[in-house]
Amino acid sequence: MDFYDVVRKRLSVRAYRPDPIPEETLTRILEAGRLAPSAKNLQPWKFIIITDPKQRELLVPACRGQKFIAEAPVVICACAVSKQAWGGMGGYWSAEAVDVTIALEHIILAAAAEGLGTCWVGAFIEEEVRKVLAIPEGVKPIALTPVGYPAREAKPRDRKPISEITCRDRYE
């Protein structure tokens, strides 16, 4: 599939079939994240792959009651390993969230190329996700995504036109 077709095809999926994802497919998706760029190539990430149905169910209240989290056969929690991240973005801030976001987006696009659905989940209660997944201090959950075969077709949402989101040579 052409890259631009993948970008257009990627939609937020909130209903999943329970069909398992072949291990080779999951490995290819994770490889896409592994190859993502990061500041100074520090790769300050850790991906928690949740396949246990009980663990996925425990994530539902931690993700503000979003039940579709537990429907997908896989959930990926993308975490930043703070001490591994470059701290000089813009001269003063950490690249950790940006780096992890880029890697997770690679994973999400790879999943779309494999015919799988995902949904970027940023609505979660950090302390509850930490507890469920035993995430240690110094590691921050940045976002989660279920990964699975869509149970129904997702509907595209309107996007702003390019003219509304860009400007040339200076901010206007």
Key structural traits:
Nitroreductase-like; oxidoreductase activity; 172 residues; oxidoreductase; four-stranded antiparallel β-sheet; Nitroreductase; globular; alpha+beta; TM1586_NiRdase
How would you explain this protein's 3D organization?
It is a single chain. The protein is of the alpha+beta class. It has one domain: NADH Oxidase (3-Layer(aba) Sandwich). Helix 1 packs across helix 5, helix 2 runs antiparallel to helix 5 and helix 3 runs antiparallel to helix 6. The protein is globular. The termini are far apart.
Summarize the structure.
Residues 7-65 form the Nitroreductase domain. The protein is 37% helix and 15% strand.
Write the SSE topology:
Elements: H1 3-9, H2 23-34, E1 45-50, H3 53-62, H4 68-71, E2 74-81, H5 96-113, E3 117-118, H6 126-133, E4 139-148, H7 162-165
Antiparallel strand pairs: 1-2, 2-4, 3-4
Number of strands: 4
CATH fold descriptor? NADH Oxidase
Shape: globular
Largest sheet: 4 strands, antiparallel
Q: Considering the protein shown, what is the CATH homologous superfamily?
A: NADH Oxidase
Could you tell me how far the N terminus lies from the C terminus, measured between alpha carbons in angstroms? 36 Å
Helix-strand sequence: HHEHHEHEHEH
Which sequence of strands runs across the widest sheet? 1-2-4-3
- CATH C-level class is Alpha Beta
Beta percentage is: 15-25%
Taken together, the total number of domains comes to 1
CATH architecture: 3-Layer(aba) Sandwich
Number of H- or I-type helical stretches: 7
Helix-strand makeup class: alpha+beta
Keywords: Oxidoreductase
InterPro entries: Nitroreductase, Nitroreductase-like, TM1586_NiRdase
Protein name: Nitroreductase
Family: Belongs to the nitroreductase family.
